[in-house]
Amino acid sequence: MKQRHIIISALLLMGAGAFAQQPDAAASQQNTDAAQQSVTIDQLKKLVTPSGFLQTGYTYTDEPKSTFLLRRARLVLQGDLYKGDAGKVDYKLQLELTGTPKILDLFVRYRPIDEFGLRLGQYKSPLSIENSEYNPAKLEFVEYSLVVKRLARMSNSDLSGYNQNGRDLGLEFLGSAFKKDGYSLLNYELAIFNGHTLNANDNNESKDIVGRLIVNLTKELSVAGYYQWGEGTYPLYVDSTHTFVKTNDLYDPLQRYGGGIAYKAQKAFARAEYIAGETNGTKSGGFYVAGGYEVVKNLALVARYDYFCDNNDDKDYNTEQDITVGLNYTPVKPINLKLNYIRQSYTKEGKDDVNGLYFMVTVKY
Fold it and tell me: What's CA 330's distance to the chain center, in Å?
């Protein structure tokens, strides 16, 4: 009997031990699941990183014009598809949601080494510094410079007749070399583009060639040179009416060339660019000089001078000069307020100067 009691007691103790171990096993399983879930979320963050910005504001000019407006609503999805010994593969998708929604950027980029990489898809053209290096949320002014809006396909007033938001569809070779103190002394880009419209197939067999070379003299100071050659359907300047008229030819010639210098420090910036070109036989060109300084914390004073001539052989009818002064204020990191005064002067007889106030709010997310 005594032996039976000992056996029963042992079995009860074993059962109690098993029950006592069950919570520990359950807790261990929960910790494993949580760790796996954490790894999955981290992987997802690397694969898809959402961001974007909204821009709205108010414009008043003495033309007269007075309107509130929604300028931009951008959504960006980007991430790394691969990052390892064989290099890096990343992608970017950017949508513009104002007006008729459209794709602005959609590309895949492969960088096996810093000195060489490939990018395929739709993205910013390397023509100019301002166009490719300064998106609307980063630009210090409400409006882009005249020369960029006229020659880099950044606006409806571009001489090519195309507004492509400064972008094109094609293949690019890119790289950086000679690293020094956290930056590269040399950056290059060479792109082959359709030279047509956004989100569309090419309409001829010719392709645009765009190249740019940037030399970083210091971490803050850079100089750049760029060139573009292409063929497409471009407007022809008519001397009798002093206007551009669209043609039906698919192989009108186009050239763009220029250079610039940019300085960017913690509290100050200075930038200047000259861009010229020939559009279907019409020579055009211009430049801008811009600068700014943070006078007090989060508040900067900015100024810019613009000059552009649509036709160098008919300057009395086609020259514009703009003077911009403004304030940049960032009350909190995601929000920026810009107030610009712009005076636009024209050489065309009978066309009055225009004075305008431009206010814009940018919210990043």
Answer: 20
pLDDT range class, residue 18, cuts 50, 70, 90: very low
pLDDT band (50, 70, 90) for residue 29: low
d(CA 185, CA 196): 33
What's the pLDDT score for residue 45? 75
What's the pLDDT at 21? Answer: 46
Does any domain span residue 73?
Answer: yes
Q: Which long-range contacts (CB under 8 A, 24 or more apart) does 31-36 make?
A: none
Strand partners, 96: 74, 102
Cβ contact 150:158 at 8 Å: yes
Looking at the structure of the chain, the number of domains it has is 1
CATH number at residue 130: 2.40.160.10
Within a domain: 302: yes
Q: For residue 14, what pLDDT band results from cuts at 50, 70 and 90?
A: very low
Q: How do residues 270-329 score in pLDDT, each as one tens digit?
A: 999 999 999 999 999 999 999 999 999 999 999 999 999 999 998 888 899 999 999 999
Residue 109, in any domain of the structure: yes
Query: Tokens for 289?
Result: 């000089």
Query: Regarding beta strands 282-296 and 65-84, do their DSSP bridges make them parallel or antiparallel, or are they unpaired?
Result: unpaired
Beta carbons within 10 angstroms of residue 193's beta carbon: 23
Residues 6+ apart with CB under 8 A from 27: none
- CA dist., res. 192 & res. 207, Å (int): 6
Residues 167-186: what's their mean pLDDT? 96
Is the residue at 61 inside a domain? yes
Q: Tally Cβ neighbours within 10 Å of residue 330.
A: 16
Domain hosting residue 314, numbered range: 52-364
Helix or strand (DSSP H, E) at 2: helix 2-47
